[in-house]
Recover the amino acids of this structure.
């Protein structure tokens, strides 16, 4: 039998050891708080942490954006990956790629223009993840990184631009 060290514990009497989680670091081999108190404290800490994180985000928006830009600038595949994952979830598309599946070429495979990451804005030369067959979702072998322009061209391109896309599509 053992007492819970939490003063708020409703279990005033000693409890059986089965009411405590094991802990090799303590002399008796069990945690100081009963399982019930431990879980209550854990959930309370989760709420406190969420509130603290929300307060931090509200007070440090500019710093967070600056750090995100550095994070994505160092490896733009991360931004492409997380945005694709978000779109797949929203559109209920299959998603089984990893960051390593995203290969950013130096030049757009359609227009042969250089691909580069801008400073917080998208340009025609920004790398963009394309689903070659949209119905297959973001799956291995169905994605490639092309220019933002080539990816948008499907809706507003010129005949010449469409012919360049068709030429590339015929390769697949």
């Amino acid at each position: 039998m053992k007492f819970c060290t939490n003063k708020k514990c409703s279990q005033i009497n000693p409890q059986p050891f089965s009411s405590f989680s094991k802990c090799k670091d303590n002399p008796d081999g069990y945690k100081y708080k009963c399982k019930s108190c431990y879980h209550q404290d854990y959930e309370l800490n989760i709420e406190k942490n969420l509130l603290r994180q929300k307060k931090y985000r509200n007070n440090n928006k500019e710093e967070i954006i600056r750090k995100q830009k550095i994070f994505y600038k160092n490896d733009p595949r991360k931004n492409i990956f997380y945005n694709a994952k978000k779109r797949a979830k929203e559109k209920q598309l299959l998603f089984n790629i990893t960051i390593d599946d995203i290969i950013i070429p130096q030049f757009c495979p359609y227009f042969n223009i250089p691909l580069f990451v801008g400073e917080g804005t998208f340009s025609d030369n920004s790398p963009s993840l394309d689903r070659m067959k949209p119905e297959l979702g973001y799956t291995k072998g169905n994605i490639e990184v092309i220019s933002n322009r080539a990816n948008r061209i499907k809706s507003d391109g010129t005949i010449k631009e469409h012919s360049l896309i068709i030429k590339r599509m015929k390769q697949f």
Summary: The radius of gyration is 26 Å. The chain has a mean pLDDT of 88.
